[in-house]
Amino acid sequence: MKKYIASQFPHELKTYISLILASILTVITIGIFLEISEFSHHTFKVFIVKNPALSFIITPITFVSIIYFAKHFCHFVQGSGIPQLIAATESHNKSIREKLLSFRIVAGKIGFIFFAMLGGAPIGIEGPSIHIGGSIFYGFNRFLKLKRTLLIHALIAIGGSAGLIVAFNAPIAGVLFAYEEIGRKLKKQALILIATVSGLVYFLNISYHGSSPYLMDLSSVSFDLTLIWQLLPLVVVVSVLGGLFSRITLYFVHKLIINSKIKVFMMALSVGMIAALFNYVSKGQIAGSGHTEVLQMLNSQSLGLDFVAMKFFAVLTSFVSTIPGGIFMPSISIGAGIGAELANFYTQIDMQVIMIMAMIGYLSAVIRAPLTSTFVILEMTMSLHLLIPGLAVAFIANFISRQIYHQPIYEALAERFSKTA
Fold first, then answer.
1. Which of 106, 264, 276, 297 has the fewest CB atoms within 10 Å, i.e. the most exposed one?
2. What digits encode the pLDDT tens for the residues 189-217?
3. Is the pLDDT of residue 183 over 70?
4. Residue 326 pairs with which residues in a beta bridge?
5. What does the pLDDT read at residue 354?
6. To which H or E segment does residue 189 belong?
7. CA 165, CA 171: separation in Å to the nearest integer?
8. First and final C-alpha spacing in the chain
9. Does the reported pTM lie above 0.90?
10. CB 394 within 8 A of CB 360
């Protein structure tokens, strides 16, 4: 058994040195990426609050410029980046992997997200962080020249895990995401290597950025397990909405496969105008990932159903447009908004617990990765004591979502990248 497990690990010292260097570079690069993205997002919000009408100029121009350029000159930077990692780990073709993951992709992703945030795009930066992490780790294979497919795919999965860990400060979720979503076809033994390097990344990250939770410390909230049945209506609502989000997204993604420059221009302009309208009405509240808005709702500041509706359709149209950007945090913000509104109907369960469960359920319904969805929310709120109800909500949401659309959204999008690479 020891020999079998040992055979799944690299044998050369330079490989371990490269893994350490890749971990350091990933923590620093994504840390800088998160800071400049937050800066550009804050700049847009401050400006648009004073001049909301200018969103009809800034946001459409941003969408047209980024989508047009990415579509024709940097195709593999589009979207969240997670489908690219899945496609790369499922491919045995070196040329495909190098198109999907590279240091050039890292630079492009950072640049596009910076300008997208500056223009008020309703996108997340966590999916792109995962793409950046995978690209950095795979980029080191140019020096390692690994030949075993298992180790190459494990390298990509480690990078994806590292990206999520740095973005959300969620080590358990990072490892689970690497195995549950990115490396579905990896052998179980690869999980040991993934977990080991992910642990190193987490240690480096807390040394560099600190150990504060991504959202807030809700370790003091409590939940009576005898009331778990009361969560069922909440789960049904978030599951149906999350499943519909995925189904509608994939429907339009397949319908909007266009190559004509004029059609790309018109599509980008239309989506940009939709995002601009939501930014104008909300005074910039819909822009960005929704991180600030989730914090507000967790602090009992109601944003209303209009926020949920606008965020849902803004994220949907933006994601369909293939503009670089993720749906992780935007989905969490939508789930939080639903939970905040439905919490009014619960008298025996704390509002923050309802919001946590709604975030878990909605995210699980959208990405169809129940373990990742559960742990990423619980880790970012320091509420792992809610693990049992969280897992129950996630798996029920996953089941309901599967009835609406069978194939997980990232898996379906990964097939598209595999065909076009």
1. 264
2. 677 888 889 999 999 999 988 888 999 99
3. no
4. 124
5. 95
6. none
7. 5
8. 38
9. yes
10. yes
